[in-house]
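Contributing new records

If you add data, match the layout below exactly. Sequence lines come first and carry their own label; structure lines follow with theirs. Keep one chain per record. Anything else will be rejected by the validation script.
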Amino acid sequence: MGATLDRHGDPAQAGQSGDRPDRCDGAEGNHCPAGTHALMTRSNSRGAALILSLWALFLLAALVMSWALNIDSRLKLSGSENRILEAQAMAASGAEVAIAPAIKPSSPNLQGTFGPRQSYSVRITGEGGRLNINWLAAGENPARIEMLRHYLDLKGIDLNERDRMIDSLLDWVDPDDLV
């Protein structure tokens, strides 16, 4: 019959361990075809370089995403602070309009707009329509306390809440520290 050939095309020595290994692993003493050891080393280093570059790409992507989220949060914060500043400026403008000496309650300058989302409306009320809490609670005068009770009733405060508010106010203004 014909001779048995190994995978390299060389005549095999059946059942005997020859000087040629069944596989080429690049170890010293194993005889590999010329250039096989260098090819395997180059292939392994290419695989390691590919894994290393994928890790570097992953880390770079994570850094870019972190940076983008940081910028986004700073933009939101800046926008919020800008709207707060605009609201404070609008409130100050309305107060300045209200205290101007030439302004009368029927003046058209009590309402105005500055832009598409910026407007003001001023309402002038006299101090005579307000209740002096210190006067109402002073001396625990029953007629004054009844006036305060009636005022709170007109504002829609229920009976239990109203009595608790009046008791708290009287406790606040009395000279002792007892409840």
